[in-house]
Backbone:
């Protein structure tokens, strides 16, 4: 009886040692669990990753937006040749009395997507404008993280400030109509245009203005009335529109 | 009677020593458990703090690239300037703008820009541009990839790393 009592204490000691060994060697984690692991994982792999990707995608959209401004201006605002035609790479805004009115939103949308596709063939955005901002919407989703049934996606839509207002085209087209109306019947076209045209409408080239007439068709380089300049390849490039007007009577 | 008492006392002493050693073992185990758990808890709290600090580091990097900057008295974004400086190999422009930003934000550390090819393949890639305002750069706070649509060759994608 006496020996059994003593043995009980010895067994307790051995059991405790085994329990301790199990606790050390077992893959199950004992002790304090780190706080906020799920939340920090979420922030790191989803939120921060999404913010980084958005920073990159917004920059691409901004640069392509600026290229859209310059590219459209060099083609008189038209992505494709309008029915009024082009002569020596100058897009004409009218053919006699008929004007080829610009659908600015449509042209911006088309030009932007054409330029963006050079960078990402699958990309497609529906563009809208708000002041100097371009807003791009897309149904596409970029999968960032997936865990079991839960996943985190990023919508690569954007809102970027191109520091340029496409509404300037409306002002220029109004001025173009006025020029055509007032000088169409003038025998001395150059004299008439010099009296009527605003100073930022230059004959031929913005660098070296020179009047040239081809069958009463005159090419213009129009400096931005608002003096817009777009940041492109490390410098501010002034926005200059290339457009032609036809002063033919019929 | 006297002999039996002595025998009982011996047994009692034996049980008492067993109890004493058991209590001693238990208190030692308790002591170690408390020490281990406390160290473990502080390790894990430290790990959590490091991860929170890493989150703030990444935020600092995002704030840097998305911050406005002045060029020829016109506002552009820091991303624009970094990309322009990389394309033109303009270390002066990069240093000047980073210095202004670090001073305004009271930051200590540095920033380095790599081309993504060297960054992904070389163990110690040479930065295209770098700036620091301390002797030792410190730990990496975050890295960010940017697409450089006008970039040539390896510069088509760049990596910006913030240290501090």
Residues:
């Amino acid at each position: 009886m006496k020996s059994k009592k003593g043995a009980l204490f010895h067994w307790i000691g051995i059991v405790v040692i085994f329990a301790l060994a199990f606790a050390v060697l077992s893959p199950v984690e004992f002790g304090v669990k780190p706080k906020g692991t799920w939340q920090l994982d979420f922030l790191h792999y989803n939120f921060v990753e999404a913010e980084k990707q958005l920073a990159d995608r917004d920059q691409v959209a901004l640069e392509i937006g600026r290229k859209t401004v310059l590219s459209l201006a060099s083609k008189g605002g038209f992505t494709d040749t309008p029915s009024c035609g082009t002569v020596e790479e100058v897009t004409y805004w009218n053919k006699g009395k008929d004007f080829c009115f610009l659908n600015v939103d449509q042209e911006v949308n088309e030009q932007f997507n054409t330029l963006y596709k050079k960078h990402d063939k699958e990309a497609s955005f529906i563009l809208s404008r708000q002041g100097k901002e371009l807003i791009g919407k897309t149904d596409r989703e970029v999968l960032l993280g997936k865990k079991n049934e839960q996943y985190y996606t990023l919508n690569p839509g954007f809102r970027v400030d191109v520091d340029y207002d496409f509404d300037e085209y409306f002002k220029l087209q109004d001025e173009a109509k006025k020029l055509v109306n007032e000088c169409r019947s003038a025998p001395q076209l150059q004299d008439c245009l010099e009296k009527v045209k605003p100073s930022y409408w230059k004959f031929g080239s913005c660098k070296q203005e020179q009047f040239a007439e081809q069958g009463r068709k005159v090419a213009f380089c129009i400096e931005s009335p608002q003096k817009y300049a777009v940041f492109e390849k490390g410098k501010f490039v002034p926005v200059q529109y290339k457009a032609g007007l036809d002063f033919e009577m019929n | 009677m006297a002999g039996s008492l002595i025998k009982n006392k011996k047994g009692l002493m034996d049980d008492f020593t067993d109890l004493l050693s058991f209590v001693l073992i238990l208190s030692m185990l308790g002591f170690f458990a408390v020490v281990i758990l406390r160290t473990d808890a502080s390790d894990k709290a430290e790990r959590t703090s490091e991860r929170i600090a890493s989150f703030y580091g990444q935020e600092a990097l995002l704030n840097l690239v998305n911050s406005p900057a002045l060029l020829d008295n016109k506002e552009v974004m820091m991303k624009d300037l970094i990309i322009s400086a990389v394309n033109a190999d303009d270390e002066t422009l990069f240093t000047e703008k980073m210095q202004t930003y670090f001073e305004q934000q009271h930051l200590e550390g540095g920033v380095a820009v790599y081309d993504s090819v060297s960054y992904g393949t070389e163990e110690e890639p040479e930065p295209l541009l770098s700036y620091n305002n301390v002797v030792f750069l410190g730990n990496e706070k975050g890295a960010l990839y940017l697409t450089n649509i006008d970039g040539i060759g390896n510069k088509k994608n760049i990596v910006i790393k913030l240290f501090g």
In short: Helices of chain B lie at 2-66, 78-88, 91-105, 116-121. Chain B has a mean pLDDT of 88. DSSP finds four helices and six strands in chain B. Chain B touches chain A through 46 residues (CB under 8 Å).
